[in-house]
Structure formats: structure tokens, C-alpha cells
Amino acid sequence: MAVCVAIVGKDVSRNCLEANEITLKYTLMIYEYSCLFLEFPKFISCLNPDEELSFQYKVLSSLDIVEEKINGINKASDNRELFLGMLYALETHKIYGYVTNTRMKFIIVVDSSNMALRDNEIRSMFRKIHSEYADIVGNPFYTPGEAITFKSFANNIKNIMTGTV
Amino acid sequence: MSEETVFELLHSELVNYVIQNNEKTPEYTEVSERKEEDLSNLEYIGFFTGFRMIERLTREMPRFKDELDTMKFICTDFWSVIYKKQIDNLRTNHQGVYVLQDNNFRFLTRLSNGKQYLDVAPRYVTFTCGVLRGSLANLGVDSIVTAEIQTMPSCKFHIQVQRS
């Protein structure tokens, strides 16, 4: 059972660049603020809605590692799988990443105490999320690039999170 | 067989619809004097079709290494899904220009086998240009796509990658 799932848009790196320019001029606080603003996830779902803000922070801070992995700091490994594996582990949570060919980023946060979830389960969870996302993009009422507000989508993601599918 | 016909009929009706809509607009006479049709609406429809469709088509694919890898995917898997065959020839100058040649393009095979109707042929490749541009845009490659028809039913698509 995962505790949080987030979908982040494709143009993050560009936003970060712009934010970086701001940092040079102003302060670190503005950088963090503008990052939060620009990279607001397209979709976020948490088991416990009260914790959403702290999860958002975790998700956003993991995006740099995603960028690092897909832009290939260690290109020799030549890992071309969409699933990126574990991005990093905190004391309380583990964070996994997945990037589609269209550069959409999916993030799953799992409780550290949860030993039942292995890489393979996480991978299949990501694949299900990707299918759901592909369906949503095919929906004429969804404009690509905007936040996803479909109730059915939120429900399906919740089911994937809790492992009831 | 019948499934394939449905898509072709839908496509040709789409073309008719866009052309007829153009004729209703007041500027139509000017446009017809220029002897060039305004097919941008058709291209636009294609763009969004491609943009949405590519998410599903690349779902099972490994990550593309580079631009050429993406083009190879377009020529093989992508083309066989939509046009039931692969591209016959892919050429590139390795500087962002790609030429995709299809000797038996699906939307043209039933139209003519030679030079007859060559003047209306652009209508039937514009949608595909849009689909290509939309798909590539979603994969992170900004491009301009044009088509060239010398003798039907063969067709060449020129993809010019825009580097910023």
C-alpha cells in the first residue's frame, strides 16, 4: 500500500531554470516559493489528506533526482526502462519514480516500514497508473497540460494505491 | 477488412467537412483565387490526435535514446498501427532533417494510381502531417512537417526539427 501518488508535468526543468535565474537576483526563499508555484503537480492523491502538503514537498524535492536519472549522469549503465527505481529513502518514507516517453513524471511515496512492497509490485503499480493516465489523455474533456480533476481518475488511482485492483 | 475501411471513410469525411467549412467563410473567394487551400484546420485536428494518441502508443516502449531512435519508432511501430505498414525509406542528414517515404500511402492508394487528382492530393496528407507533428511534439521534438507527392500513391514526408 502506497501513501501518496503524484503526477508532475513535463516542462519542469525549464521552470527550474527560470526559477534559478530568479535566485541569482533574489533569495533562496523566492526560489522555493516559485518552484512550488510553477511545478505544482498535475495530480496528487494521498491516503491521509492532512499530510498532502508535506508529501508535495517530498515529491517536488525528488524531481531533481528524476532529472538526473533521465539525463544520464551515468550513461554507461544505459538503463532505458521507464521505471526509475527508488529515488531516495527518508527515515519515514521511500520515494519511487517513473517517467513516460512523453516526459510525464509519476512519483509514488511508500512507508519505510512497509516491507511487503518490492520493486516488482511498485513497477506494476506504475504501469497501472500509466494506463489510467493514457486513458485520461485520450479523453476529449481533458486538455493536456492542465490539472487532472476527474473524479473517476482519482478513484482509480486510490484503488491502485490501496492495492484493491 | 471492414474495420480498416471505417477509418479511411472517417478520414475522407473529415477532409470533406473541413473543406466545406472553408467554403462557408467569407474569405473563401480570395483563397480560391490564390489557388491554395487553407488546410490548417485539418492539420490542427491531426496535431491533437497525434498528441493524445502517442501517450498510449509509447506505453510499452523503452525510453528513446535520441532523436533518431524516436524516428525509427515513428517509421515502424507507429506507422504500422495507423497505416498497417511500415515506412519504406527513412533518410536523414543527421542535422535535423528526416525524409520518410511511403510508396503505398494508405489514404492515397484508393484515390489514384498516377497523376490524376494530383491537385487535390494535399488534402489527404495534411491530417497525417499534423499527426506526425503532434506526436513528435509530445515526445519533446519540435518540428515542421511537410509532404511531397509526385506520383500517387507514393508520398514523402519531410520533417524539419526546430532547434532552439
Would you mind describing this structure in some detail?
The complex is a heterodimer of chains A (about 160) and B (about 160). Chain A has about 160 residues and is an alpha+beta fold. Chain A has a single domain (about 1-160), classed as Beta-Lactamase, CATH 3.30.450.70. Chain A is built from five helices and five strands, in the order E-H-H-E-H-E-E-E-H-H. Chain A has a five-stranded antiparallel beta sheet with strand order 2-1-5-4-3, sandwiched between helices. In chain A, helix 1 runs antiparallel to helix 2 and helix 4 runs antiparallel to helix 5. The longest helix of chain A is centred in the middle third of the chain and has 19 residues, at about 50-70. With about 160 residues, chain B is of the alpha+beta class. Chain B contains six helices and four strands; from the N terminus they run ααααββααββ. Chain B has helices at about 1-25, 30-35, 40-55, 65-85, 105-110, 125-140; strands at about 90, 95-100, 145-150, 155-160. In chain B, strands 1-2-4-3 form a four-stranded antiparallel beta sheet, covered by helices on one side. In chain B, helix 3 (about 40-55) packs across helix 6.
